[in-house]
Amino acid sequence: MSSTLLAITFIAAVTLCYIAACVAVPFRDCPRCDGMGHDIKTDRKGRMKRGKDCRHCKATGKRIRLGRHLYNLWLGIHRDGTR
Questions:
Q1: Which residues are CB-neighbours of 25 under 8 A, at least 6 positions away?
Q2: pTM surpassing 0.90?
Q3: Burial letters for 17-48: b for 16+ Cβ neighbours within 10 Å, e otherwise?
Q4: What is the pLDDT of residues 17-75, one digit of tens each?
């Protein structure tokens, strides 16, 4: 097999795996708060306490995957165009 064909096959396999992940699990943990929904702070004594809610995931701890977001946008445009 030539290296070009091998590279194309690898990229296609990675793409199909990502599409399968977007279909099976459309939400992922928020990278900003590590899926907790809030920040962890320490008080002056060093004890852990809850911080502010995460603005990026709106305190849910989950964010939608990029591929799923693009699919949802495409689906909305398709729905609006075919009515």
A1: 65
A2: no
A3: eeeeebeeeeeeebeebebbbeeeeeeeeeee
A4: 999 999 999 999 999 998 889 988 888 999 989 888 999 999 999 999 999 999 999 99
Q: Two tokens at 10? A: 């690898």
Beta bridge partners of 27: 64
Beta-ladder partners of 62? 29
Nearest to 27 by CA among 55, 60, 75, 52: 60
C-beta separation of 74 from 49 below 8 A: no
